[in-house]
UniProtKB/TrEMBL annotation, chain A:
Family, per entry: Belongs to the MICOS complex subunit Mic60 family.
Record keyword Transmembrane helix present: yes
Compartments reported by the entry: Mitochondrion inner membrane
Protein name in UniProt: MICOS complex subunit MIC60
Coiled coil: 358-385
Biological role: Component of the MICOS complex, a large protein complex of the mitochondrial inner membrane that plays crucial roles in the maintenance of crista junctions, inner membrane architecture, and formation of contact sites to the outer membrane.
Entry membrane topology: Single-pass membrane protein
The organism of origin for this protein: Amphiprion ocellaris (Clown anemonefish)
UniProt-listed InterPro entries: MIC60
From TrEMBL, chain B:
Top-level taxon of the source organism: Eukaryota
Family affiliation: Belongs to the MICOS complex subunit Mic10 family.
Name of this protein: MICOS complex subunit MIC10
Coiled coil spans: none
Localization per record: Mitochondrion inner membrane
Keywords recorded for this protein, A-Z: Membrane, Mitochondrion, Mitochondrion inner membrane, Transmembrane, Transmembrane helix
Natural source organism: Amphiprion percula (Orange clownfish)
Primary subcellular site in the record, as a coarse category: mitochondrion
Amino acid sequence: MLRACLRGANATARNNCRRNPLTSVQHCRHYTAGETSGATKVVAAGLLTVSSGIGGTILYAKWDHKFRAAVEKNVPYSDLLFSLALGPSSQEGLPIKKQVKLAIVVRCVFVTFLYCYGVCFENEVAFCVYMFALEECKECHDHKDTPVTAVVHPNTESPVAMEPLKERPVEEVAARLAQQDQEEQDILASVSASLEESLASSAKTTLQAIGAQEAALQAITQHTHKLKEAMEAEKSAQWKDLEAALANRTCAMNDASTALLKANETLGSLKSVIDKSKGLNIAAVHPLVLAAEENLHNMIVDLDKVVTKVQSAESEAKIVSQYSELVNEAKQQFQREVSSLTPEIQANWKGLTGKLSADDLNALIAHAHRRIDQLNRELAEQRVREQIHIDAALEQQKLEDQKALEKAVNTTLQHVKEEARLEQERKLGELREVMEAEMRTQLRRQAAAHTDHVQDVLKVQEHELRAEAEQVLSSKMLEQETRYRQLNQEQLDNFTLDMNTAYARLKGMEEAIDSHVVAEEEARKAHQLWLSVEALNYTLKTTDSDLPTIPLKSAAEAVRDSCHDNDFALALASALPEESLHRGVYSEASLRARFNSLRSLARRVALIDESHNSLYQYFLSYLQAALLFEDEQKAPPTQLSREDLDPFKLLSYASYCLEHGDLELAAKLVNQLRGETRRVVEDWLTEARLTLETRQVVSLLSAYANAVGLGTTQAP
Amino acid sequence: MSEKQLGKKVDRCLADGAIKLGTGLGLGIVFSVLFFKRHTWPISFGSGAGLGMAYANCQNDLRSHYLLHKSEKEQ
C-alpha cells in the first residue's frame, strides 16, 4: 500500500513536473535533476548500489558469522575480501538474541538508507528492495523473541577425543582394585585417626575454653555483683573482696582468652585437617568428615555463644564499672572538695562524725548546701538535657546495639550458613550413598547381563570351535583314508605290474620261440625264393645271338609260387613284362649286333621327319650319310646340349655305351632320336626297353631274395 | 622290325617304279605305234608318266606315316 502511495506520489509529481515545468522547478528539483543527466545518473546509481550492497554485506557478515560463512562458501574470493575488511573469521558466537537484534538494527539502517535513496532518486528498484527489507524487518521483529536455534558454536561442540580404552586383564584389575581398596582403607584409617585426634584435642580445648569462659563469666558476674554490692554497701571488706573478685576476673579473663586462643588454634587445625581429608576425595571419608565438620560447627557455635555471653557480661560489667568509676570519681571529688574545705580531715570521713567542729560542720553543711544547689541545678540541667542525653545515650546504645546486632547477625549468619552447608553436605552424602547403592545395583545388573552375554558368546564359540575341530578331524580322517587307499592301490598296482611283466616276459618268450619258428620258415621260403630267382636269372642268360631267350613264364611261375605270401615279390614278379614271359627277351649282345646293323640305316634317314619327307629329302639324306663321317664311338658327355642331339652324334654315343655294356644309357640316347630315325630304331628301342625291364625286375628280385636270405640267416 | 620297314618300302618303290616304268613304256610304245605314228613322245610321255606315278607313289608311301588320314581325322 505504501508502495502504491509512493508510486502515486511519484506519478503525480511527474505529472506536475510535466504540466508546469517552469513554475514547479523547486518541487521538481530532484526529479528534473534526475531527468536531465540520465546516463550519469544511472551509472552513479549503479555504482552506489553496488558499493552499498558490498558495504552492507560486509557489515552484516561482521555481525553474523553464519551469514559470513554462507557468503564465503557461495561467492568465490569473498573470503579474501572479508579477511581484508574484517580480519580472519573467528568462531565466537554472540548470544543469539544479541545477534538477531544487531542484525535487525543493521537491516533497519540499510532499509532506511534505501528508502532515502529511493526517495531521492526515484528508483523503483530501491523501493522494491525497501519494501522487501521492511517485510523482513517485520518478520524479524516478530521472531525476535523466538530466535533461530541454528546458531552453532562449532568450537564448543568439538568431539572430545576419547582415548581408546583398553580392557585390562582381570588379575590386574583385581589387583588394582585391591590395591585401591587397601589404599583407601589406609587413608581412611589415617584420616579417621587424625580426625579423631584433632577432634578430641579440639573438643578438649573447646571444653576447656568453654569452661574458662564460663569461669570468666562467673567471675565477671561475681565481680559486677560484688561491685554493685560494694557500691551500695560501702564496706571496706567488700573492697578487698572486690579487688579479689577483680583479680579473679582478670585472671579468669586471661585464662579464658588463652583458652579461647588455644581452642581457636585447635579448631583451626581441625579445620585444616578436615579440609585436607576433604581434598583426598575418597567416598568413605565423607561421613567422618561430615561428622567432624558438624562437631566443629557445634563447638564453634558453643564457643561463640559462650563468648557472646562473656561479652554481654563484660559489657554489663563495663557499664557497672563505668558507673562505679563515676561514683568513685564523684566520691573522690567530694573527698577532694571536703579535703579542700577541711584539709585536716582525713579521708575516711564517714567515721568522723564526732571529730568535726562546728565550722567544719557548717562549712561542710554550706558546702553540702552549695553542693546540693549545684546538684539541684545540675539535676535541673540534667532534666532539661535529659532528652538530649537520653537521645545521645540511645544513639550510642543504638550504635552499640547495632554493632552487637551486626556482629550477632554475622555470627548467626555464619552459623546458619555453616549449618546449611553441613545440611547440604549431609544430604549430599546421603544422596551419594543412594547413588552408590543404585550404581551398585546397576553394575550388578550389568555384570549379570555381561555374564549372560559372555555365556552366550562362549556357547557360540564352543559351537564354532567344535565345528572347526570336527571339520579338521574329518579332513584328517579323509586324508588318512585316501592315503590308505592310495597305498593299497599302489600295492595292487605293483603286484599287477609284476604279474604283467612276468606275463609279458612269458609271452615274449613264446613269441620269440614262435618267431624263431616263423623265422626259420621265412628263411626256408627266402631260400626257395632265392633259388627261383636264381633260376630266373639263369634263364636270362640262356640265349643265342639274334634269338630271344626262352620264355620266362615258367621261371616266373616258379618265383611266384615261392613267394605267394610276399606282396613285394609278388608285385615284382607280376611286374615282369608280358613279352618277356611269353616270348622271352633278347640279350644284350644281340641287341648290340642289331644296333650296329641298324646304325647305318638310321644314318641314311637322318634328315627325314614330318616336314622333310619327300623323295628328294630322302636322296639328300642318303647323300649326307654317305658324305658325313663321324666317330664310330664317342663317349657321351654327362649333360647333353643342343648340338649333341644330332642323330649322328647320338648314334656314336649309343655305340660307345653299347660297347661298354651300358644298355640303359644307350637306350636313353637312342630315345633322343627324332623323326624317321626314331621310327627306324623304334623296335630296337622297345626290345631294349623290354630287356632292361626284365633285367631290372630280375635284379630287384634277386636283391630282394638276397636281402631276405641275409635277413633270415641267423648269426652264430 | 621297324628297321626293315624302310627296306620293304624301298623295295616296293622300286618294284612299283619298275612296273610303272615298264607299263608306261609299253603303253607308250603301244600308243606310239598305234595312234601316234611311231613318234617317240608317247613313249617318253608314257615312261615319264609311269616314272612320275611311281615317284609319287613312292613318296606317298614313304610319307604315309606322317600324313593324317581322313578316318583318323574323323576319329
